[in-house]
Amino acid sequence: MAYSEDHIALAAEYALGTLDAGERAQVETMMAVDTEFTAIVHAWEYRLGVLNQMVGSVEPRPIVWENIKAAIGHSTEQQAPLVLPEAPLPPPEPPAEPVVVAEPVAAPVVAGAPSAPVDNSNVIQLPDRAKRWRNIASVATALAAALIGKLAVQVYRPELLPEALRPKPRIQTVEVKTPAPQPVPSAQYVALLQRDGGSPAFILTVDAATKNFTVRKVGADAEPGKSFELWLISDKLPQPRSLGVIGGSDFTARPVLADYDAGTINSALFAVTVEQAGGSPDGKPHSAPVFTGKLIETVPATR
User: Fold this and answer.
1) How far apart are CA 206 and CA 264, in angstroms?
2) What separation, in Å, do the N-terminal and C-terminal C-alpha atoms of the chain show?
3) Per residue in 253-274, pLDDT tens?
4) Which of 47, 133, 168, 273 is deepest in the core (most CB within 10 A)?
5) Average pLDDT, whole number, for the chain?
6) 91-130: per-residue pLDDT in tens?
């Protein structure tokens, strides 16, 4: 059903607790028989209760109550008993006369005649609706002002608040991810293994950082029952050192250069011999080098 502003104001004042006993009884009776009106009361309790919870209760000083009583005309001292003026005695009755029954005659009404004066100087006419809404507005304004004041103190001067009302420090953990270091490109060396300055038969690539090498077969085919074997020949070594058999695929990778220092690798002569299938059985070359070449730096190291 539709409710008037008076009903809504009654519900709001009930939630605030500013009604007298009669009005509270009226509201509670309406709540008992009308669930929709009960919902309106609960809605006001929810709206105003949030403001009330944000403001702590403050006990006024005793002098405040004394000032309030004095302002409304009540004193703490015992007042003198109220004495009413004595009523005047009725005038003596005249002697009885014969009763003459006559038709009632209406008293003449004189237009513009002044009526009996009434002193209304101490009467304040204030509609109930305006009074209720004014009470609600006053309480809501006070709660809002207190809430704003509390928030301002929490932000700018939290040390002035009691320990229970101080804002809790918020600790936030931030994970900072450090980018993974990018690998630094290492120097790259290449040797063209060829015969007498002709077309290369193999291309040898060496990574200076890992000392891994890769042999790519370009234009050489092993004889049946034979294998190509790669050798490192250096004046720092007493004899050639085998780097393994070159496989039948186009690419062969080996990590065996890790046993040699950079100076030996960069200055050495790399040679390919033709050995029996599977390579030299004793770690020594059994034929003269067929293809040879030395490393040259093709990609310098990043500094």
Assistant:
1) 13
2) 85
3) 988 888 899 888 989 999 999 9
4) 273
5) 76
6) 666 555 554 444 544 444 444 445 555 555 544 444 566 6
C-alpha angle 124-130-133 in degrees, rounded to nearest 5: 135
Tell me which residue of 209, 207, 210, 202 sits closest to 231, measured CA to CA: 202
For residues 204 and 191, the answer to whether their CB atoms sit within 8 Å is: yes
The percentage of residues in the chain with a pLDDT greater than 90, rounded to a whole number, is: 16
| Poorest-pLDDT segment among 17-21, 48-52, 162-166, 287-291 | 162-166
Asked if 201 and 193 touch (Cβ cutoff 8 Å), the reply is: yes
| DSSP assignment of the chain | ----HHHHHHHHHHHHT---HHHHHHHHHHHHH-HHHHHHHHHHHHHHHHHHHHS---PPPHHHHHHHHHHTT--SSPPPPP-PPPPPPPPPPPPP---------PPP--TTPPPPP---TT-----HHHHHHHHHHHHHHHHHHHHHHHHHHHHH-GGGS-GGGSPPPPP---PPPPPPPPPPPPPEEEEEEESTTSSEEEEEEEETTT--EEEEE-S--PPTTEEEEEEEE-TTSSS-EEEEEPPSSSEEEE-GGGGS-HHHHHHPEEEEEEEETTS-SSSS--S--SEEEE-EEEEPPP-
Residue-wise pLDDT tens digits, 193-238: 888 877 888 999 999 888 899 999 887 887 888 899 999 999 999 9
Distance separating alpha carbons of residues 39 and 133, to the nearest angstrom: 19
Q: How far apart are CA 20 and CA 23, in angstroms?
A: 5
